[in-house]
Structure formats: structure tokens, C-alpha cells
Specification:
Length: 365
């Protein structure tokens, strides 16, 4: 019985090998390796994909959050609402700025930010920005988010690292907020062969600010006009590889959604809770079930040759680096979910037969 991994990047790479090799050759022969024509073309193509006016390539998804927030005037001491169930990436970006995370709890069903809690935090005052993470590939109801944040004049950054291509009402992840961050880490729905990231925005001032922030604060070569800047660039090799893969993202997302829909329809074990939002708003980045006996389920699947993982086992406010300072924070749903969630294999190259095996293994448990 062959092993079914939680992911299989070798299969994924094989599916685009010819196009990727051609892209790599093109860069090799170009004599230009950082922020060049491939980057410019990718920025244009990815902005079109998202339905935004601008895209700025950066080095990774965490930098994209950081530079995006800096362009939204988040500074040292700024208070930024975020969730604590999304892997600490936003907290890392806030830490680099010296800004302070203000945690909102999540909804037990969607696992996305609880908007009642968000409204309460904003009503209490002192909030400078909000990060909405479209966790597991599920686009939040951004119109509902903006109905809360817009009247208060608070900018929203969408963290789309898990939600490339997700849409509601024909509008895609990244096109709603003042700015949006993407990661192209190899496991993402659009992944490079290394690190990569981008910020997208509809606003040309924000775009210009990020272009400066990603390269030493330069307004022109060797002319520094912006402080708080970095070196965070997307290299030509990764940009060319991303261009080669971008045309496939929508069909990969459909395949992920198809697998997720099979799981949610065919898993009939009353001890296992399955996600229910499976329309265009969900791109199947991670398929995450809930189970009171998570360890038992994971052990059973492992014995059946099926890999699982936990995204994420420790809520941000409970991470060892910050738990002491956060000991008074209570996020009941976030904390409960952290003990119950389990991620099943869900990626475009998973075969029908493998999905059948996962379903059968869960139903017989
Ligand atoms: C992967 C990820 C990031 C960070 O991206 P990197 O490219 O690894 O820095 C940020 N937010 C979320 C939700 C992610 O899944």
C-alpha cells in the first residue's frame, strides 16, 4: 500500500516541468537576475489575475505583509487587529515593525475572523489597521469586513497567502482591501521553486510606497526618499517560474475544490467535522477537519499510510516567545480549534483512488 503524503511537490513540479525549464533557460540566458523584465511581466500578469491595478513582487509572503502594512502607515506602536489561528506570520511582520497585534477570535465554522469581535475591538478605539487572513483558502466576506472598517477609516490588508484566485461575486482575493499580501512559497496554490511574495493594491500611492520599501527606500537609483525600507525583491528566476505556472492556477484550484467537495460529501463519520464552504470562495489550499479525538484519528490514518498535519497547533498568543506577555488573553474558539483541527491531503495531483482511500479510512474509523 503506497503512502499518501500530506503534499507531494515532486508530482506538482513534474506537471509543469517543460514550461518551468523553458522559463529557467530564458532567465539564464538573459544576463539579468533581479527585478527585471520577468518581474515586470509577472507583476502585470498577477495583477490581472487578481483584478487589481498594481502588483509589486517581493521576497516572501511575510515581507509582503510587513511592507503592505508599512505602506498603510502602520508604525512602531500601531495596534493591528488580526487572528491568532493563522500560523504567526502576521505577528512576525508586526514584530519587525514594532507594531502590536490585537487578537480577534474566529468563527467556529469558517475559522475566519469573528466580525462581531472585530466590530467590538474597533468600537473600543485605538486600532490603526486590520489584517484579514483568508485561512485555508477561504475568502472572508470582505464586503461585511469593509462595512465595519470603512466607516471607522481603518485600512484593511488581506493576507491571501492561502487564497490565490478565491472569489466572491466575481471579485478575487486581494482586490477588496487597501492592500493584499501573497506568498509563493512552494506549497502555496501558486508556488515558486524557492521563496517569493507580492503585494497587490488598487491604489497607486500605496503601490509606489511599496516599490520604494522593497528596495532600500529608493525613489530612483541611489536616491533614498523613504525610511523603514528593506531589501525584499523577487528574483528573475522565481518571477519567470511563477509566470510559467500562473496559467494553471485556476484549473489547479478547481481540482482542489473537487477533492474537498468529495471529502465533505463522502466523509460520513459523525466524529469528524467537515468544512461546508466549497464554492468559488474556497480554493482548497488546506482541507481541515475537526475531531475531538484528533490524535486517535491521525494515528489511525498514519497506520493506513495516510499523512496528516496540524495547521496550526499553537495559537499565536500561546507561542512560547510571547505567551508570558499574553497570559491574560482568552480566545475561546481559537484555543478550542487548535486542539481539534486536522489537515487531510488535498492537492491537485492527488488521484481519485487516493481520495477514495482517505474517505474509506476515515469512515471505517
Ligand atoms: C505561508 C503564509 C505566509 C508567509 O509566507 P512566506 O512566504 O512563508 O513568508 C503568511 N500568511 C499565511 C496565511 C501563510 O500561509
Amino acid at each position: 500500500m503506497s503512502h499518501i503524503g500530506i503534499n507531494d511537490l515532486k508530482r506538482h513540479a513534474a506537471s509543469t516541468e517543460a514550461a518551468v525549464r523553458e522559463a529557467v533557460d530564458r532567465v539564464l540566458e538573459s544576463g539579468w537576475y533581479v527585478l527585471g523584465r520577468e518581474n515586470e511581466a509577472f507583476e502585470e500578469e498577477f495583477a490581472r489575475f487578481c483584478g487589481t491595478r498594481h502588483c509589486i513582487g517581493v521576497a516572501n509572503g511575510t515581507d509582503a505583509i510587513e511592507l503592505g502594512l508599512r505602506a498603510l502607515s502602520v508604525r512602531e506602536g500601531s495596534r493591528v487587529v488580526t487572528v491568532a489561528n493563522a500560523g504567526y506570520y502576521t505577528a512576525t511582520a508586526l514584530g519587525s515593525i514594532g507594531a502590536i497585534p490585537v487578537y480577534a477570535d474566529v468563527d467556529g465554522k469558517t475559522r475566519l475572523m469573528d466580525l462581531t469581535h472585530l466590530a467590538d475591538l474597533i468600537a473600543a478605539g485605538g486600532i490603526d489597521a486590520v489584517v484579514i487572513t483568508h485561512l485555508f483558502g477561504l475568502l472572508h466576506d470582505m464586503e461585511a469586513v469593509l462595512r465595519i472598517t470603512d466607516p471607522a477609516g481603518i485600512p484593511v490588508l488581506e493576507d491571501c497567502a492561502q487564497a490565490h484566485g478565491a472569489s466572491r461575486g466575481g471579485r478575487r482575493a486581494g482586490s477588496f482591501g487597501a492592500a493584499a499580501s501573497f506568498s509563493f512559497y512552494p506549497t502555496k496554490n501558486l508556488g515558486a521553486l524557492g521563496d517569493g511574495g507580492a503585494v497587490v493594491t488598487q491604489n497607486s500611492d500605496i503601490a509606489q510606497s511599496i516599490r520604494r520599501l522593497r528596495q532600500y527606500g529608493w525613489e530612483a537609483k541611489y536616491r533614498v526618499s523613504t525610511s523603514g525600507a528593506r531589501n525584499s525583491r523577487l528574483d528573475e528566476m522565481q518571477a519567470a517560474i511563477l509566470r510559467a505556472k500562473l496559467p494553471f492556477v485556476d484549473s489547479w484550484n478547481s481540482k482542489r475544490r473537487e477533492i474537498a467537495t468529495r471529502y465533505s460529501t463522502e466523509i460520513r463519520n459523525p466524529r469528524v467535522g467537515c468544512p461546508q464552504s466549497l464554492g468559488e470562495e474556497y480554493v482548497g489550499h488546506l482541507y481541515v477537519v475537526t475531531c475531538d479525538d484528533r490524535q486517535g484519528l491521525a494515528g489511525h490514518l498514519s497506520a493506513m499510510g495516510i499523512g496528516t498535519d496540524i495547521h496550526y497547533p499553537v495559537p499565536d498568543h500561546r507561542q512560547a516567545a510571547v505567551s508570558e506577555a499574553n497570559s491574560a488573553i482568552r480566545l475561546p474558539i481559537t484555543e478550542e480549534l487548535a486542539d481539534k483541527i486536522l489537515t487531510l491531503p488535498c492537492y491537485p495531483e492527488l488521484t481519485d483512488h487516493e481520495v477514495t482511500r482517505v474517505v474509506a479510512a476515515i469512515n471505517e474509523w
